[in-house]
Design goal:
10-stranded mixed beta sheet; 3 domains; 13 strands; Rossmann fold; Ubiquitin-like (UB roll); alpha/beta
């Protein structure tokens, strides 16, 4: 049997050094290539394609807002920060950003679908269909005759849900809910077009809807008793345990009165 001697120590060291040098050479080549690709003008962004909802923010407006914030090339750009730049534009709710090889950016936008004003009349704030509050120029929606909703911002979706339950109840009697407010203490207040104010008590959206439904079922008969139209309603208090109190223009009356609950 022939015995093979192990390679000499200096040979093993030379082989290891050669492998290490080759690895360093390859890494340097990769780094150089990466830097070249990242800085080559062929991969610098040359255009942005905007698709999706652009009713309130056209493509030119979008580009003007974000062109200075798009950093890097096709390979080095941070998609997360670029998306944030698009979503910072007024009216943009969500942006989905993609790279189009070799030097274009494609962005799909979803706009806020406005359903109401939010907050006090002095505030430039709106509410979208998801119950989210956003800032925008309210002058752009003046022609829509939107209702005004208000309450703690953390409960904006609850306020919107309550409005969606109330609006058809009142519109069935040709009454329009102009404003709905939820106080910090949890009390609801409804304002109708024409000036009528309704104190609707506490509870969630379903409890509020049930209370107002019971009120509206008898309201027509009550105002007819005094030969008044529904538009004569001036105020109502639904916080009574077994009924409600109302005031009609030209007539003061009380229906099923008890002491109101706070």
């Amino acid at each position: 049997m022939t015995r093979t001697d192990a390679p000499a120590l200096d040979v093993r060291l030379m082989n290891a050094a050669a492998i290490a040098l080759f690895a360093v050479f390859v890494a340097a080549c990769v780094l150089t290539l990466t830097r070249w690709v990242a800085t080559h003008k062929m991969f610098a962004f040359q255009g942005i394609t905007v698709i999706g909802d652009v009713n309130h923010c056209n493509a030119a407006t979008v580009r003007a807002h974000v062109v200075s914030r798009v950093k890097g090339s096709f390979f080095s750009m941070d998609l997360g920060s670029t998306r944030d730049a698009f979503e910072a534009i007024p009216w943009v709710r969500k942006a989905v950003v993609h790279r189009d090889f070799p030097n274009h950016l494609r962005v799909k936008l979803q706009e806020h679908q406005v359903v109401a004003y939010w907050g006090d009349e002095s505030e430039q704030r709106l509410l979208n269909s998801f119950g989210e509050v956003f800032d925008a120029n309210t002058g752009e929606v003046e022609q829509l005759n939107l209702p005004r909703l208000n309450g703690p911002q953390s409960q904006s979706a609850q306020v919107l849900a309550a409005y969606h339950l109330l609006e058809p109840q009142f519109s069935a009697l040709n009454l329009t809910v102009e404003a709905l407010e939820l106080s910090v203490q949890g009390s609801w207040r409804i304002a109708l077009a024409g000036g009528a104010a309704i104190e609707a008590g506490r509870g969630d959206a379903d409890a509020l809807a049930q209370r107002t439904q019971a009120f509206l079922k008898t309201l027509t008969r009550v105002v007819a008793r005094y030969s008044r139209p529904l538009s004569a309603l001036e105020s109502a208090d639904l916080r009574h345990e077994n009924g409600y109190a109302i005031r009609l223009r030209g007539v003061s009356t009380l229906a099923a009165s008890t002491s109101p609950t706070p």
